[in-house]
Structures are given as structure tokens and as C-alpha cells.
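Subject: complex prediction, re-run

Hi both,

The earlier run crashed halfway through, so I resubmitted it with identical inputs.
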Amino acid sequence: GAVVSQHPSWVICKSGTSVKIECRSLDFQATTMFWYRQFPKQSLMLMATSNEGSKATYEQGVEKDKFLINHASLTLSTLTVTSAHPEDSSFYICSARAGTNYGYTFGSGTRLTVV
Amino acid sequence: GENVEQHPSTLSVQEGDSAVIKCTYSDSASNYFPWYKQELGKRPQLIIDIRSNVGEKKDQRIAVTLNKTAKHFSLHITETQPEDSAVYFCAAPRAANDYKLSFGAGTTVTVRA
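This time it finished cleanly. Structure:
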């Protein structure tokens, strides 16, 4: 079945630094990648949608200059949290659309802690 | 856009009993309703889904029912086991022909041995 690899699984960074999270589709071409943020005991909140070769579409209230998304190939999308602050600490998960209408496959998630 | 409400937020059941989680949606044009199971610190996993052209779908101990008139769909887990303990999320498309999903708030299910 479709597999999405997400790295790192967890990261601790200092306030003010940037962190890059990668999602790779291992055995399929992900034309669309969704990036979610999940706070403890809360639901998945869509941050942005990226399509290969084009600019990402951000949800209302999500700062595009703070959460940089790159989807340069059909198998790789990255999310960079720039100038991270403690309030950015969260669980970030990617989800790739595998070509069928609703064929979503989630990455394993990245636990970001900003200290 | 689609508004998905999920109830209850927590559910505790005795092993062997059934668990039912209900979600309501607002857009009558929605045509796809998945359910995801998420264990602590792990990725959501699709456990079952249903399209609007059927009223019920079953997969072993898990079933999903859809009532299009009332705009709600439910997850049924029978003969619950400790490994069913997790957070369950329902979802629906944000709009007709939109492949983005709106997720419910989640239900934490605890199966007591």
C-alpha cells in the first residue's frame, strides 16, 4: 500500500531557530500534500495544501512566511517552521493524496518542541 | 464550508461491549465519510469509509452507517477489545468536489478489561 515517510519523528529546537520537516511518498507519486497541525487532545487542523511545482495554498490564519512549504517533486514535500517560538510546539503531520479521489496516506508525524 | 461535529468526546466501554460514535455534517452535497483511528503519538489510520450512495458498510467488527436525510454518520465497533482503545476521528469533504477534509474533534475510546 501507499507509504509516506516523515522525518524527523521528533525535534527539540531553540526559540528563534528554524526547523525543516520532510515528507516523502515512497511508492507512489503524491500530486498533493496536506500539512496538518495537531495540538494535544485536539483534532487535525489543516495548515496548507501543496501541489507539486506550484505555490502552496495556506489556510486562513496560517502565516505563509512562517511556515514555508516546498513541493519540488512528486515524492517530496517539506515544511520549514521559521523563527520558531514555544507556541509553535505541536505535532505536525503530512498527508499525501495518492491520485484517487480520497486516497489519503498520513505520515508518521513530527513532534516539535521549541524551548 | 463543511462543519463536522463529533460526539461523544470520550467513551469508556467494558471489553466485549459495543461502542458507537456519531458525527453530523452540514453540507448535503458531501459524498465521502472516512473514519480514522489514531493511537497516542502515531499517525491517523483509515479504518473504514463510506460513500453517499450506500447506507451501511461493514468490515469485521467495524461498521459505518450513513443517514443522508439527517446528515449524520456513525461508527460502530462491536465486541470491543483493549486494542480498540484510541482516538477516533470522523471527516467529511470541506465542500463538494473538494478533496480537503474537515475532521471532527475526535473521540477518545477506552476499553476496560
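Residues 95 and 103 of chain B are 13 Å apart (CA to CA).

- K.
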